[in-house]
Amino acid sequence: MIDPWLWLGACIFLAYTLEAMTGFGSVVIALSLGALLLPIPTVLPVLVSLNVCMSGFLAWKLRAAVERRLLSRAILPLMLTGTLLGLALAPWLDDLVLKRGFGLLILGFALRELLHLSQGRPSVPPPDWLTRLKIGAAGLSHGLFASGGPLLVQALAGTRLDKARLRATLVCVWFILNGCLALAFLLRGSLAPALPQIAAYLPLLVIGVLLGEHLHQRIEERHFRIGLHLLLCVTGALLICR
Fold first, then answer.
1. What are the Cα distances from residue 85, in Å, to 71, 81, 111, 136, 138?
2. Helices 221-241/4-22 angle, 10° precision
3. How far apart are CA 197 and CA 138, in angstroms?
4. pLDDT in tens, 135-169
5. Element (H, E) at 213
6. Distance CA 148, CA 82 (A)
7. Other residues' Cβ atoms within 10 Å of the Cβ of residue 126
8. Which of 4, 119, 142, 154 has the greatest number of beta carbons closer than 10 A?
9. Torsions phi, psi of 93, nearest 5?
């Protein structure tokens, strides 16, 4: 038998290394894997709080590469609105059906982009209204199950952000949104019981960030795009199978 908290530690190391490398994926991957052995309400405050620590550090370090105009005028207003709506709707919606539908959507988008990349065809930038719709839907998903990353990446992948600006902008989004979620957990009383686990996993977070930074610097732009959409396929499949 695997100790569930050791298993969660391994999931955290993997997921937060990937987020340091790509700018997203830590919560949805660690939550999907960790939920195999631990209840989601127990795991979520730990993962969100760790993400606040990591994304805050990376947001400060990468602040020069942040696409501030896009962040302030499009991403944050739509993501915050969607997140608040998701938090309000969460008690009334079927969680399992939503997760699987969301997973199918992400998997479909990612497979389409991988097909374009494999054929050497550049992705056609979507119209602004579709990008904004995806960003709002990403906020809704984040409010429902702290997993807005895959859909937000899909929205931003159609823009002309290079890998450095994409990652920097994403970690700023997660720092702000997950800071709000952590505050909500604190007010609900679910954050305080998670503090010992958060402290225990912080060293894994540090090692994961260092490793992810190392890998990010050594990956070519095309390989980064392929890896990003493969990661989307994995997260979509995890959401479908959860």
1. 19, 6, 29, 10, 11
2. 140
3. 28
4. 888 888 777 766 677 778 778 766 677 778 888 88
5. helix 195-217
6. 10
7. 16
8. 142
9. -110, 155
Tokens of 74: 């499009």
* Cα separation values, 234 from 13, 48, 111, 169, Å: 17, 20, 11, 22
Query: What token pair was written down for 146?
Result: 């702290």
How far apart (Å, rounded) are the C-alpha atoms in residues 128 and 97? 29
What DSSP character marks residue 68?
H
Backbone phi, then psi, for 36, in 5-degree steps?
Answer: -65, -30
Number of separate helices (H) and strands (E) present in the chain: 11, 0
Return the residue matching tokens 């579709």: 130
pLDDT tens series, the chain, 242 aa: 678 899 899 989 988 888 787 777 777 778 777 877 788 788 889 999 998 998 898 899 888 999 898 888 888 999 889 888 887 887 777 767 766 776 787 787 778 778 877 776 555 666 778 888 888 888 887 777 666 777 787 787 666 777 788 888 888 988 988 898 899 889 989 899 999 999 999 999 899 888 888 877 777 767 776 776 787 788 778 778 76
Full residue range of the structural domain in which residue 81 is found? 4-241
Our count of domains for the chain comes to 1
